[in-house]
C-alpha cells in the first residue's frame, strides 16, 4: 500500500539542550537512522522541519505558515495537508527504536478499517508521534490548531481512531513493540540509547 513516511524533526529539544534529530550514535544521526529504517516502507519520505533546516537528501516541509511554532500538531497537519497518499506514517526523531516492522503492521491494520488513525498504546500511554493517519485526519488537526488547542490528546478525541496495544501485536513483533515507542528527552536518556545501540551492534557481529 502506498504510504508517505513523515519524519518529525521540528521540536525545540529544550530538555536535551541540542537538536535531538542531529544527535549521533555509531556514526549516524537520529534522522539518518530513521531514514534508513523506514525508507523501505515509503512511497515517499518527507522531513517535517518545523522552523529548522537540515542538510539531508529528503524533501523538507516547514510548518504551515498559519500554524508555525504550534508544536507537533502543526507538523502532523502540515504533513497531511501535503500528502499524496491516503496512508501516512509519522515517526518522531526522538524514538531511536522505532521499527519499520511495527510501522508496517500498523499500516496494514489501518487499511482494514474505515477509521482515521491507528494509535499505539503502551502501559496506558498513547503514542501519537509514531502512528499512522489517513489524510482524513487533517480536518481535526486544523480545527484544533484554529482553536489554539495544541495538545495531541485533545486532537485524538476528534478522530475515529483504533487504539492498539501489545496484546494486539503478532507474537513475532511483541519484543519490538515493547521498545518501539521509547523516546529520549534529556542527556541521560541519550547516554542510555548509545549504550543500548552499541550493545545491539556487538550482538550482531
Shape: globular
Distance between the termini: 34 Å
> What's the total number of strands?
10
Count of helical regions: 7
Average pLDDT works out at: 89
Q: Outline the biggest β-sheet.
A: 8 strands, mixed
Rg on CA atoms, Å: 16 Å
Percentage beta strand: 15-25%
Describe this entry's structure for a reader.
- With about 200 residues, this protein is α/β, with parallel strands linked by helices.
- Helix content is about 35%, strand content about 20%.
- The chain contains 7 helices and 10 strands.
- The strands form 2 sheets. Strands 1, 4, 5, 6, 7, 8, 9 and 10 form an 8-stranded mixed beta sheet that branches. The chain has a two-stranded antiparallel ribbon with strand order 2-3.
- Helix 2 crosses helix 4.
- The longest helix has 18 residues.
- The model has no long low-confidence stretch (mean pLDDT about 90).
What is the element layout, followed by pairings?
Layout: E1 3-8, E2 24-25, E3 28-29, H1 30-38, E4 44-50, E5 60-62, H2 72-82, E6 87-92, H3 100-111, E7 117-122, E8 125-126, E9 130-134, H4 138-146, H5 152-157, E10 161-164, H6 174-180, H7 187-204
Parallel strand pairs: 1-4, 1-6, 4-5, 7-10
Antiparallel strand pairs: 2-3, 6-9, 7-8, 7-9
Task: Provide key terms for this protein.
205 residues; alpha/beta; 7 helices; two-stranded antiparallel sheet
Summarize the structure.
This protein is an alpha/beta fold and 205 residues long. The chain has helices at residues 30-38, 72-82, 100-111, 138-146, 152-157, 174-180, 187-204, and strands spanning 3-8, 24-25, 28-29, 44-50, 60-62, 87-92, 117-122, 125-126, 130-134, 161-164. Strands 1, 4, 5, 6, 7, 8, 9 and 10 form an eight-stranded mixed beta sheet that branches. A two-stranded antiparallel sheet has the order 2-3.
Amino acid at each position: 500500500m502506498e504510504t508517505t513516511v513523515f519524519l518529525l524533526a521540528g521540536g525545540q529539544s529544550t530538555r536535551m539542550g541540542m537538536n535531538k534529530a542531529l544527535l549521533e550514535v555509531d556514526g549516524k544521526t537520529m534522522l539518518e537512522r530513521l531514514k534508513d529504517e523506514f525508507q523501505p516502507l515509503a512511497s515517499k519520505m518527507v522531513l517535517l522541519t518545523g522552523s529548522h533546516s537540515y542538510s539531508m537528501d529528503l524533501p523538507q516541509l516547514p510548518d504551515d505558515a498559519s500554524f508555525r511554532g504550534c508544536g507537533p500538531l502543526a507538523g502532523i497537519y502540515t504533513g497531511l495537508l501535503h500528502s499524496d497518499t491516503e496512508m501516512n506514517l509519522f515517526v518522531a526523531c526522538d524514538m531511536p527504536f522505532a521499527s519499520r516492522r511495527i510501522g508496517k503492521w500498523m499500516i496494514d491494520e489501518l487499511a482494514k478499517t474505515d477509521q482515521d488513525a491507528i494509535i499505539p498504546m503502551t502501559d496506558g500511554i498513547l503514542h501519537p508521534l509514531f502512528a499512522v493517519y489517513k489524510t482524513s485526519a487533517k480536518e481535526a488537526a486544523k480545527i484544533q490548531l484554529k482553536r489554539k488547542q495544541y495538545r495531541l490528546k485533545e486532537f485524538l478525541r476528534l478522530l475515529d481512531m483504533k487504539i492498539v496495544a501489545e496484546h494486539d501485536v503478532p507474537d513475532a513483533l511483541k519484543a519490538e513493540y515493547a521498545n518501539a515507542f521509547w523516546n529520549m528527552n534529556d542527556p541521560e536518556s541519550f547516554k542510555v540509547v548509545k549504550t543500548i545501540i552499541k550493545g545491539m551492534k556487538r550482538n550482531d557481529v
